[in-house]
Amino acid sequence: MAVLKFRIYFEEDDSIYRDVAIKHTQTFLQLQQVILKAYEFDNKHQATFYRSNDNWQRGREISLAPYDKPYKVAPLLMENTAIGTEIKDPNQKFIYVYDFVKNWTFLVELIGVSKEESSKIDYPAMIKSEGIAPSQYGTKGIAGDKLTEMEEKYDLKAGTEGFGTEGGDSDDEEDLEEKGEEAEEGQDDEA
């Protein structure tokens, strides 16, 4: 049985991606579920896949449900459509849109086909993760709890011994003022 390996890029930053492996007989609904899990999104919103070409133009729609919008061609349904039936070339691409209000868009690209499935993997499965996923509903990630944890661990808010605070010490300012006055007096004496 063929195993398809897809790379799912976050559209706004292609350095953020997830690789997933899925059997060719599994459905687009199962592909959607593994994408949402890989990006830590919930499963509460409308979604659709579009068959795409090399230029990422949207083609035939494979939808979670038929939505109240005009279609040129009736969409295929995710739960009834096996992924293998929509693979038309070895570099097949799809566009996945989730939550039509927020319009989360992911670029899905076939990057490999294997004839052997692994007994160690429960398909579909995420097999590689690169970059910090965007937060579905707000801020998360390294700027949140991790940064606070680092501040507490290393006491980043306290001054460090041997280093002054920005602008220097007040003693240094007084020394500079005295030197400036002495220089001015020296100039007066010469005149």
Record the SSE blueprint:
Layout: E1 3-10, E2 13-23, H1 28-38, E3 47-52, E4 58-63, E5 76-77, E6 93-98, E7 104-114, E8 125-130, H2 142-154, H3 170-190
Parallel strand pairs: 4-5
Antiparallel strand pairs: 1-2, 1-7, 2-8, 3-4, 3-6, 6-7
Q: How many helix segments?
A: 3
> Gap between N and C termini, in Å?
98 Å
Estimate the global geometry from the Cα principal axes.
Answer: globular
Number of strands: 8
Order of helices and strands: EEHEEEEEEHH
Q: Could you explain how this protein is built, in words?
A:
The chain is built from three helices and eight strands, in the order ββαββββββαα. The protein is globular and about 40 Å long. The longest helix has 21 residues, at 170-190. It starts with a strand and ends with a helix. It has helices spanning 28-38, 142-154, 170-190, and strands spanning 3-10, 13-23, 47-52, 58-63, 76-77, 93-98, 104-114, 125-130.
Looking at this protein, list some descriptive labels:
191 residues; single chain; alpha+beta; eight-stranded mixed beta sheet
Structure, briefly:
This protein has 191 residues and is an alpha+beta fold. The protein has 3 helices and 8 strands; from the N terminus they run E-E-H-E-E-E-E-E-E-H-H.
